Amino acid sequence: MVDLPAYLEERRQKVEAGLSKHLPPPTTRPFILHEAMRYAVLAGGKRLRPILCMASCEAAGGNPDNALLPGLAVEILHTYTLIHDDLPCMDNDDLRRGRPTTHIRFGEANALLAGDALLTLAFEWTSRVPAPHPYPPGQVALELAIGAGSQGVIGGQVEDLDAEGKPVNADLVDYIHSHKTAALIRAATRMGAICAGATPPQLEALSRYGECIGLAFQIADDILNVTSTPDQLGKPVGNDAALRKLTYVAVHGLEASRIRANALIDEAIAGLCLLPGDPNPLAELARYTIHRSK
Amino acid sequence: MVDLPAYLEERRQKVEAGLSKHLPPPTTRPFILHEAMRYAVLAGGKRLRPILCMASCEAAGGNPDNALLPGLAVEILHTYTLIHDDLPCMDNDDLRRGRPTTHIRFGEANALLAGDALLTLAFEWTSRVPAPHPYPPGQVALELAIGAGSQGVIGGQVEDLDAEGKPVNADLVDYIHSHKTAALIRAATRMGAICAGATPPQLEALSRYGECIGLAFQIADDILNVTSTPDQLGKPVGNDAALRKLTYVAVHGLEASRIRANALIDEAIAGLCLLPGDPNPLAELARYTIHRSK
Questions:
Q1: pTM of the predicted model, to two decimals?
Q2: Based on the structure, what is the number of domains in chain B?
């Protein structure tokens, strides 16, 4: 069995140290930009995406340290999406993880540019990671670009914004969740698998694992937005409903949302039998995805 | 000698065809985003960056077609910087190349996301281009990431915004120009050299060539902003002064600006003798950089 809290804490510390080391120091020019980048990235958080990237590499028989830099890239790319999402022309949020959002703290232009710079830096990092045989050498960066691009995360954001205030629609909420949230988590698990030189069926299993827990993660977020308190969540609750956001809960209700999230976790775990490494950390991480309190 | 207008037109058509082919079609979801991306990219323009990328590859002894995809990536990355620069929280421009800017036509959120998607797509394209021996396989994408990042283009943008309305400062205008404009043009010429498998001295010559013409290009832009008409330029003129932008002309005056631009072009051309291929296209392109009317 896995001592999940200890495992998460050990890996989280590795991620924090890596981020702090690899982000440009605040003492290099342009100072305000580097300060804003570090403010947004080094704000805590669960670091689930890099932890999943490393765990996927390990489960596919690789050394998890080989997946650290790609995992850090996924994390700062995730941070850029949060900075841009929070901007006034998007969700217009003032608070994130209990602190002022980046544009409140550094101004809109610097927040926009800090997001752009983190997105760019994610590709600087991944382009330094050659994929092992039999993958093409640029495969790690390519997975990140596809997951984050117009037919990945950004596609989900566009449809999410467009859907606000419109009638609920089951197909559309599936599209939004699978693109806005699952695409990047799937990219993280695929990148980990590739760093291990996974076989095609192993890559496919980890890809589906990432997809399933990504969807379950977003459904859990939708549930927490209804059932949690601002103190627990570190941000306002109930704003999905106020903004008439298209959520899984709005379409299917709380009970059906819980059932679906559990079914996705079961499916994610079922595929792990194809992997050469210990499946327990990924199985525990899958369950944690929906049983967290924030 | 080179028939420059015919050369530019032939290469420009190749670039236009490549962009139209490789950009996501407007018939794929998310429709509005892909439409916005194509609207911003396929708006004409000189396509100097991809032409320089291909010409650098050829001058270093390579096949220019090998540098087409990296060149296209530089071009769409350049377009993303224009979209984000035009946003209300940045320069707040309504007009670009005689047409409404992307956020005027598609709304701020879609413009922000179209810029993000083009930046991401630039790395999807470059991560498909392996660098030849002796370069590490991810070197093409890495050059683009470094040129576009917080210590490249974005660094220049941050300092440019910060400098508005402040006293003129010769060091600062050099920093802004070398980062905001020259860094990406230098990345284009370096990527072309790398695609040709250039030797270190050849890479260095093309790197310095890109740096020099990038600086000259921006000084020429500063000059045109003072001396041109809106009809010639396709955008308002004199707005640098109105915004109290830090330009080379504001610091050094028109005459000294012209002298400096010419000296940079001479330096760029002088280094071309190290290259195995025909230096004439690059020499003509260098002169064109400062003798254009828009």
A1: 0.96
A2: 1
